[in-house]
Amino acid sequence: MTRLTRELNSMLYTKSGRFDQDPASELPVLPLLARVKDLATLPRDGDAWGFLETEMIRGRNEVEARLRTVTEQIEEHLSGR
Q: Which of the four, 8, 26, 28, 50, has the lowest number of CB atoms within 10 Å?
């Protein structure tokens, strides 16, 4: 269970991941997706919008992958494997 907690906490409270260090500043929950609200403030045809959209898609993909891993670990634990 410690492994699951570590994985979830990493996703909820870090942006750099397990092998890098985030700056010593306060980060929002789910920092990989925190800037999604900024998309609404940018012109859709601008470079900034495209770069941020790409960053958010990558963040979403990472969150999904971590949740999939944690879900598999929980299912293994519950099935007694």
A: 26
41: amino acid identity, one letter:
T
CB 70 within 8 A of CB 10: no
* Rounded Cα–Cα distance for residues 10 and 60 (Å): 14
Q: Cα Rg for the chain, rounded, in angstroms?
A: 15
Alpha carbons within 13 angstroms on the beta-carbon side of residue 37 total 4
- Confidence at residue 29, expressed as pLDDT on a 0 to 100 scale: 84
Q: Are the C-beta atoms of residues 63 and 29 closer than 8 Å to each other?
A: no
- d(Cα 32, Cα 46) in Å, to the nearest integer? 21
pLDDT at res. 10: 78
